[in-house]
Amino acid sequence: MLKRRTLTFFIFIAFLLIIGIFVFFSVMKNKQFQYDYAHLMNNSVRGAATEFIGGASLVPGMELASENDILQLAINTNDMSIAVHDKRTGYTWYSTPPELNSISSKEAGDMKSTFILTYYNANDRKFEINSFVKSIEFDQAELMSIENGVRIMYTIGDVTLGVDFLPDYISFERMEEMILSKLDDPAEVRFVTRRYMETKSKEGFFMAIPALKSNKLDVERMIALFIRCGYTEEDLMFDNLDADHEMELNRASVSFPVEYVLEGDTLVMNIALEEMIERDGAKLWSFDVHKYFGAGTMSEEGYMLVPSGSGALIDFNSFRPGRERFYQPVYGPDPVIQAHTQQIFDVRLPVFGIKKAEGAFVVSMENGEAFAFINSLTPGMQINYNIVYPTFVFRTSDWAGVLSVDYGHQYAGFARREFIERDVYQGDVTLAYMFLPGDVDYSDMAARYQKRLVDTGRLTKKTEAGDTPFYMDIIGSVEKRVAFLGAPYTTSIPMTTNGLAGEIAKVLNNSGINNILMRYIGWFNAGISHDVARHLRLISEVGKSKDLQNLQTQMNNTGGKLFPDIAVLETKLMSRNFNYRNETGMTAAGWIGFSDIVENMNRATFGYRGIHFRANNKYITNPNIVPEIVDKYIANSKKHSIMNVSLRDMGNYLAADQFDRANVNRDVSKRISMDSMRKMNERFDNVLIRGGYMYSLIYADYLYDVPMFSDTFNILAKEIPFYQMVVHGYIDYCGNAYNTNEVYDPVVQLLRMIEYGASPRFIFSYEETSNITMTAFEHFFSTHYVKWYQQSVDIYRAYNDVHKNLRDKKLIGHDELAPGVFRTNFEGNFVYVNYTKHDVEVDGITVPSFGYYNDAVGAKSVTVGRYSMGGGA
Fold this sequence. Notes:
Blueprint: H1 2-29, E1 50-51, E2 63-67, E3 71-75, E4 82-86, E5 91-94, H2 105-111, E6 115-120, E7 126-130, H3 131-136, E8 141-146, E9 149-157, E10 169-171, H4 172-179, H5 186-193, E11 196-198, E12 205-208, H6 216-228, H7 233-242, E13 253-263, E14 266-272, E15 277-279, E16 283-289, E17 302-306, E18 312-315, E19 326-329, E20 351-356, E21 359-367, E22 372-377, E23 387-393, E24 397-406, E25 411-420, E26 428-437, H8 442-455, E27 470-475, E28 477-484, E29 487-494, H9 498-510, E30 516-521, H10 545-557, E31 561-566, E32 570-572, H11 580-583, E33 594-595, E34 601-602, E35 607-608, E36 618-620, H12 626-639, E37 644-647, H13 666-683, E38 686-690, E39 702-704, E40 718-719, H14 722-727, E41 732-733, H15 746-756, E42 761-764, H16 785-803, E43 813-818, E44 821-826, E45 829-834, E46 840-842, E47 845-847, E48 851-854, E49 858-861
């Protein structure tokens, strides 16, 4: 009996232990992990501010704020507008046009403003105000001196009630007792009584006439009279209650400091939002910064530089009916809140500028740029100037429907509730305005921006001389939905095993291509759209660990490199070891972030590829868990002796988590990605990064999928290789894969590669692509290497003959010599490209139709593509 009781006791204890373990792991699984990112933030060090003492400046009507051998900074102490005088040319750049040519009083106020600010008040109503009307005119900007510059403390908004101090309704008795009985001057009595009239809607009450609060002088005089009579905010509240009137009082305001400092040929503007104060329920949404800095008039000639894709120019005064303004987010749209977009090419470099006859400036956005949108407008688009400027959006919003049912009246209502992101960015917003004198162009602007990146440690030289790389993506395994006895399941379809990938590389080696960068996709965790990379499970149908190591050794021995590819910022649906409830990025309303655009959008039609595209839909990974995934992948990769890594998404899109549970804004998300790329850079010999956002350049040894074209905005006048001018000679790069590009002519692709200095790239599979029909990967329709082998060799040879001695050279110049004929300058080595149907003579040489010229190879016509072998599979 005792033994039975003892056994029963232990069984009971074991049962409780099992339940406890189950509950513990369930709680831990559903617990929201929050990464401590404090160590990633920059701590700004600011010098002491003293009383501003100006002096005579070279700018009429302004006082001297700072000066060096190149520039002089002047400030208007009345409205806090600034001007930068370039001593090299004598030209002055103004933040506010010296001769206002506005089309409305609002626009005139915007022109005089450093900031145009949007905020929500305590009742979640959205307001737009500018710093001139709501700060300068209220005398709420304090000017101080700092080393090499000035500091302005802005308070933007009504810190007093202002017009709201006057009651909308006041009873006859109260008007007589509180106001009229205390006024001795009959004129003042008449002034009051003519602006408050009896109202039938509230018997026994006066109502303020509608015109009162729209007349600034009347409002100021009326407020002064009420205050003199002893009227207070408590009286206002009493009168509102007495009249049963709800009056929204808006005293919301925002305060933050702004610093301007001269550094050589650069004006650095820093907005310290970590010192920002939001009062009376104000929630800063966004602000425009120096909307009219350097604005071009309708009588001037010039253009604006915008970083759409590879780069583009917008000519002054180029407005035509139907043309859109330019407005694009830096680092692309956030996929959590905008997964679908008709933006083809992201803004990868946070930079913009203006070129005039007297010179140019280029602006590098260096802190807070992840929140920025770049705007550009020309005369006719509600303004009379040519402008380019940034808008910083610090909070996001989302909405959810709320169903309300009233059974008594038998009706159901649908209400829309808006959710505003709780936390706001608390860091610096830094803009560096770099001024170039005289007859310069976008090539000089690119060179100056490149120097800024190098000087600040954002770009380092990694490219060496020698044969150009041949970028080759290898498709390992793809996921396919099949059925057995009517039961559907997902299986892996091997397209290229490790051994066969080595065979493809050998064939190319035998054709003289040795510097092969093999990006291997679909090699672990179920395939291309793989499970979360916390664990590393090789796909046996593709190859085991020894096979992968043999392939890596083969590539190293023949002068190439193997890059096993991983995705971290996105995770496929039904992924193992992934809790989508707590490990996905969410909107402010709590909607889970999905992305089906990264691999699956047809960029020509903005439709989806394949009838099974949902199989490739992905969750957006919460930035909080990215460090953990990266750490575990690094640890697991050591077991297989993996030497290099390809990062599919860390430099290709940026996602935040706006939900209140553990809010991670875009700046923090950027810093988490940077820290993760730093770890990868330290662990692996070489890092291949997709896309190449500015913050990823320091960690990239090679780039792929860099933009080779710009977006098709009607306002854009000219595509330019601005991105390539910044990167060439520092990091090797390539664009889209030649054989899977859906949009562009194959001849144009090859000529664009030669013109822009972008290495060839192909995607190959050993097996026939018919094996991946009816899958989410039908966009790999043209990857069977047998059909593309000879053409890929021809293209590489044509490209390498021109660029093998230019690989480590800077791209310092680019000109359109005639319509469709371009000249690219690689440090004195010129490459000519002709996109037209006729031979063209320029610079004493003949560039053949659809061909190119270089001193090393002479004149060549394109002999690949549609004019010889066709477009491939």
